[in-house]
Amino acid sequence: MQPLLHVEDAAAAGAGRLRSAWRAAHEPVAGVSRRLQLTAYAVPLVVSPSSLWRLPAVLNDGISLGERIYVPSLSILSEVLAFTAIGLIARWGEVFPRWIPLLRGRQVPTWAAVLPAGIGAVMLTLLFTVLVPINDMRGTTIRGDDVSADAPTEAGGWELAWFYACYTPLILWGPLLALLTVAYYKRRRRAGTPAAA
């Protein structure tokens, strides 16, 4: 019985170390308000419903192998991109983590975070906050084509309600990312300027 306890203790210690490392890596840096923390944590949450909504499509008989790979890949990529918003409040967004060769421990240049985050915020806002709702009201796709009869927005009933419940939160992705990007830029700029005498 004694060896079993050692295995369980080692597993618990390993999980504890992993939890503490995760907490330390994602802990907000000084100067980040509770409101900004919640904003950053909200970004992956507003993307999750649409990512999960797509996954059952993989089980449809009428889709190709390429689509079976594309659908989960799109969901995973969406979540990974959404998760990077946490870097705008966490230490790993200001100092490169130890696991990145050649850069580990060095300060992340402000532009290296602000530029992609800013471009992403503008693109996501234009796409999900502006274009998708306008095209939805017009009954067209983003390319301007008429919506096909088998599109989720044409389903009606609970399927339509479920679709909108899962995709409507995406409207917030761009604006939330923009807010975090501006706050990150201001915080880093303040940190880079010497205090007034």
Which features characterize this protein?
197 residues; mainly alpha; 6 helices; 0% strand; globular
Question: How is this fold's topology laid out?
Answer:
Elements lengths: L1 H25 L7 H21 L10 H19 L26 H29 L18 H11 L5 H20 L5
Helix pairs in contact: 2-3, 2-5, 2-6, 4-6
In short:
The protein is an all-alpha fold. 63% of the residues lie in helices and 0% in strands.
Q: What is the strand tally? A: 0
Q: What gap, in angstroms, lies between the N and C termini? A: 66 Å
Order of helices and strands: HHHHHH
Task: Give the overall silhouette.
Answer: globular
Amount of helix: 55-70%
Rounded radius of gyration (Å): 21 Å
**SS-based structural class?**
mainly alpha
Low-confidence stretches: none
Number of contiguous helices: 6
Biggest sheet features: none
Average pLDDT works out at: 85
Residues in β-strands, percent: under 5%
Task: Please tell me about this protein's structure.
- The protein has 197 residues and is mainly alpha-helical.
- The chain is built from 6 helices and no strands.
- The longest helix has 29 residues, at 110-138.
- The mean pLDDT is 85.
